[in-house]
Amino acid sequence: MNNNYAHSAQSSSPKSATSAVSLKNLNKSFGDVTAVSNLDLEIPHGEFFSMLGPSGSGKTTVLRIIAGFETASSGKVFLEGSDVTELAPFDRDVNTVFQDYALFPHMSIQLNVEYGLRARKMPKAERTKLASEAIESVKLTHLADRFPHQLSGGQRQRIALARALVLRPKVLLLDEPLGALDKQLREEMQVELKRIQREAGITFIFVTHDQEEAMRMSDRIAVFNHGQIEQIGTPREVYENPSSAFVASFLGVSNLISGPPAKELFGSEQMVNVRPERIKLQKDGSKSASDEIAINAKIVDVAYTGANTLYVLESEAGLRLVATRLNEELPGQDLGLEAGDRVLATFRKEHVAKIPNNK
Amino acid sequence: MLRFSRASRFSLMAIVAFVLVFMYAPLSVLILNAFNERQVSAWPIQEWSFKWWVVAFESEEIRAALLNSAIVAFGAMTIAMVLGSLVAFALSRYEFFGKGTVNLLVVLPIALPGVVTGVAFSNTYSNFLTPAGFQIGYFGMIVAHATFCIVMVFNNVFARLKRMNPSLQEASMDLGEGLWGTFRLVTFPQFRTAFAAGALLAFALSFDEVVVTIFTAPPGVTTLPLWILAEMARPNQASVVNVVATVVIVLSLIPVYVSQRLSRTENEK
User: Fold this and answer.
1) Is A295 helix (H, G, I), strand (E, B) or coil?
2) Which pTM does this prediction carry?
3) A68 contacts in B (CB within 8 Å)?
């Protein structure tokens, strides 16, 4: 570990050629269970990168391998181009915000934030100053002398963030940091995290199982399934052009069509996906445009969700589709569709996304 | 919260009072008799005096016994602190073959009858170690005490470590602190009260132990409880015995009290 204080070192010149984090052919198994298999990943500097997936998909394991808490069974981990595969957590220039925050219960907030600076042997006066500034930046100066158990979940979350960021790490790892917060606070913190990331210019690697959260904040998302990355791309790419049925159904609501119904509608049995908001509903007997695909269907279920209304449709051939409709009109002025009504469901051909990886 | 009628509350209180009197009346008689002027215990006490305290304090024999008890208790406590904590760490942090068995074997000595432990150690020392040329002597007594003292430290530390958040240590290392620093600054403060509480209980347990001590004390070495036992055979010295017993009570109570206080402040956090 070098003795330069992280903060006083010139902001490490971004070697544009090397990625902030790079994983090469990473494997990890716990006994018989394979948690990560043959994973390759490049995360450039300053990116807000999310690892999204259901629990047990390996995303947290990958994060823990980057942090150094787990050792890879095989493969390499590079930070800023240098091999850190064998380094202990305290020798890596990354910091972690834990899911349960992991604030030290026997230390005041001030001492919690000073902890990493103290480990770097920074003189008392200097580390007190820096820690105070960090606490101020998350607007909790008035709580500096309190202990973690006296703080609310949101406040602890901010302190955990300040404690990691005061070290100016090259990469900040966040393990479902918003999972324990209630919805409103979570949305506030999403905005806050994004702002901090943009201002500090630090690479964020964010683990979450909440697709909405990932889409809202990330520059790029990696969708994990069974220890592998199913797809990497911008939120728009993974949503609009999912590479697999899993990705399509994990991000938002999907209408996956394959086999004979697909052949009938699109001339090929290959699996396709149509997002529910692309499906227009018209009164039965309406005419469809020539660039549209039209399906005669019956409404099976209607669910009002505030901004949208969700319709479950069933075609004459037995195909089930979900369509959503923005509630633009006041009740009574809309189409007034109810369960049991017959409708014409239409969508444009260019809104049909082919699923290349059709397992 | 359960609610009781006035009558049932009263009868519960009466039962509690009866049990407490039953438990503590003999102790009170003993302590009061320590201040009896007469040579043998009697009731009611005719004349009060500190006479036997002076006798006890000036007795070489008693002071030697007190010193022995203190040394043995301190030695057993020290061994228990080190080994008990280490075992607690191993069993709370790692999965390994035979873990349940090790757990049972560590806790077993507290349940074993003292006679069995005493005979086992005595036989081992006299039949194996002495013929092999090891004169274990005084240290043997400390080791025998440590077997059941370990349980006190182990139980306390183990329970605490089980409740400890494992990501605290990861957080410490993540923030750049090494292994020793992490132990010193994060891990140890998390279980230090349990550690101290366990150690004090171990001390108290060893300090007034009789049965194992009888079997393992080397010839000519007497601890305070052994001395009391020996004096009981000579009832004309009863009042001195009462004084010494009072001292033993106080010396055992203090660690237990402090230990409880420590555990309580910890649980209130």
Assistant:
1) strand
2) 0.79
3) 173-174
